[in-house]
């Protein structure tokens, strides 16, 4: 009799505690689902923001190309002569197979651009400097390509642009845009910190920016190597 009563009491106790355990487990599942949804929404917003920044700097780069094409036509004679001398000397490095100079100038140019963008990302106003750097890069590209056509004519200038300068320029733009995204995020978080807006991902973005900067500095040799190969293959045509 005593054993039967104890068994009844144990059964009632376990049945009473079961709903509490099931409610707790459902609460944990709901919290996990909500945390995953919040994480996915944050990642989606970050992807949309990076895509907006990429569109912005791409637009400014293309706008800079068109601007540089027209600006070089309105320069004074002294500046125009200097730009023509720079253009002809740059083309001569390829046609005369000056491989070391071609590689060193291309590598230092890309290294300087990447370093300047990283330093801009460490500034509060880097969100303004970085698009400006991309715009100036586009102006330089537009001036250079337009002067090639002015100095060598349309047909020869088109071949020079395609064979010697187009692929390295595209690869360099990809490297610049890649580091610009990370530098923009670092600068944005610094800017938000001035207004006491939470910036919990600042250290994460900073580490990613430095890691990407180191990798891209190593990849700077790829466009320069392609420039050397194009000079080696196509320079006999000119």
Report on this structure.
- This protein has 238 residues and is mainly α.
- It has one domain.
- The N terminus is likely disordered.
- α3 packs parallel to α5 and α3 packs antiparallel against α6.
Provide key terms for this protein.
238 residues, mainly alpha, 7 helices
SSE order and pairing:
Elements: H1 2-71, H2 77-95, H3 99-121, H4 126-152, H5 154-194, H6 202-219, H7 221-234
Summarize the structure.
By secondary structure, the chain is mostly helical. The chain has seven helices and no strands. The N terminus is likely disordered.
Please describe the biggest sheet, giving its number of strands, its sense, and whether it closes into a barrel: none
The arrangement of helices and strands along the chain is HHHHHHH
Helix content: over 70%
Low-confidence stretches: 1-13, 15-21, 36-44
Number of strands: 0
Shape estimate = globular
Task: Note the beta-strand portion.
Answer: under 5%
The end-to-end distance, rounded to whole angstroms, is: 111 Å
**Secondary structure category:** mainly alpha
* Integer count of domains: 1
Discrete helix count: 7
The pLDDT mean sits at 80
């Amino acid at each position: 009799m005593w054993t039967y009563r104890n068994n009844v009491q144990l059964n009632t106790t376990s049945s009473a505690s079961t709903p509490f355990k099931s409610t707790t487990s459902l609460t944990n599942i709901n919290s996990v689902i909500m945390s995953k949804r919040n994480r996915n929404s944050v990642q989606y917003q970050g992807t949309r923001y990076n895509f907006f920044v990429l569109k912005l700097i791409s637009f400014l780069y293309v706008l800079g190309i068109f601007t540089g094409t027209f600006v070089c036509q309105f320069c004074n004679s002294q500046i125009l002569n200097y730009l023509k001398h720079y253009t002809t000397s740059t083309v001569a490095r390829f046609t005369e197979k000056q491989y070391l100079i071609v590689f060193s100038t291309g590598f230092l140019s890309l290294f300087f651009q990447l370093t300047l963008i990283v330093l801009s990302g460490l500034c509060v106003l880097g969100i303004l400097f970085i698009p400006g750097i991309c715009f100036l890069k586009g102006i330089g590209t537009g001036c250079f390509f337009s002067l090639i056509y002015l100095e060598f004519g349309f047909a020869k200038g088109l071949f020079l642009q395609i064979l010697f300068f187009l692929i390295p320029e595209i690869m360099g733009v990809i490297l610049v845009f890649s580091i610009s995204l990370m530098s923009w995020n670092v600068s944005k978080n610094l800017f938000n910190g001035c207004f006491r807006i939470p910036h919990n991902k600042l250290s994460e973005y900073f580490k990613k920016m430095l890691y990407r900067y180191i990798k891209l500095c190593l990849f700077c040799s790829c466009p320069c190597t392609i420039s050397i190969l194009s000079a080696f293959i196509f320079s006999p045509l000119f």
